[in-house]
Amino acid sequence: MAEQHTPRSLIVSLYGAYGRTPDGSPMPVAALIRLLAVLGVDAPSVRSSVSRLKRRGLLLPGRTADGAAGYALSDDARRLLDDGDRRIYARTEPKLAEGWVLAVFSVPEAERHKRHLLRSRLARLGFGTAAPGVWIAPARLYEETRNALERLELSPYVDLFRGDHLGYAATAGAVARWWDLPAIARLHEEFLAAHEPVLRAWRTARAGAETPGAAEAPGGAAAPGGAEAAYRDYLLALDSWRRLPYADPVLPAELLPDDWPGRRSAEVFAALHELLRDRGAEFVRPYVSGAADGAGSGD
What we know:
By secondary structure, the chain is of the alpha+beta class. It has helices at 7-18, 29-37, 43-55, 75-88, 112-125, 142-151, 171-178, 181-206, 227-241, 244-247, 262-284, and strands at 27-28, 59-63, 69-73, 100-105, 128-131, 134-138, 158-163. The strands form 2 sheets. It has a 4-stranded antiparallel β-sheet. Helix 1 (7-18) crosses helix 9 (227-241), helix 5 (112-125) packs antiparallel against helix 6 and helix 9 (227-241) crosses helix 11 (262-284).
């Protein structure tokens, strides 16, 4: 996954970070255009992406308190974002003793398009393939999996089981077959390459070693400055990070290589969130009345 911040993905990240108002009020279209412009997205791209999200039932048109045109999150979109929060901001270390959830499915040939949908959805939830038609994930993903399958009306085709791996291969060796660990590691390395220099620059600026906004940050980006820079850097980091907890099932440490980069990338994102999220809200607040307290975003 190279760094690809599409307009539609950035809009989802923006709503996840700052668009969940307690009263469900719409975000003004003008605010969306201004806030996405900071990230390099032009107005036609914003409008086109909003239209696609509207067709998917994730955004609903409405009017703000002062009568401006805007878009609010649908109930389905809020549930997706809430589910995403639990992945994106997970802090607990997974334990091998928690076991696994198995998904076994059978789809009639006449409905084989649903077979592809099932496979793609399980993969996006973080499942690995234990055998043809048998998918496996850490047991903590059970509730989210059940909710997703029911929402997509795929539950009639699936049986879910919970259990332990008893052999014959060692579990650490088995997970290397169930998931493409090198590919997942590369995703973490890409995230680190893009965002660890940003974290270093903000920490340097915070310590007073740099004059905010005056110098070059590592990698050639503008050095951290005020609320607008915090908003920009946080949204880009969030937009990159929020895919990773789905590509990576976050396996127990004893099943992963000692140099697994996922630990460091999680630490980098957590640090960026702590440093920048609230500072970025200061930039967003004048454009979005009643800035939300929601923190993350799912897909």
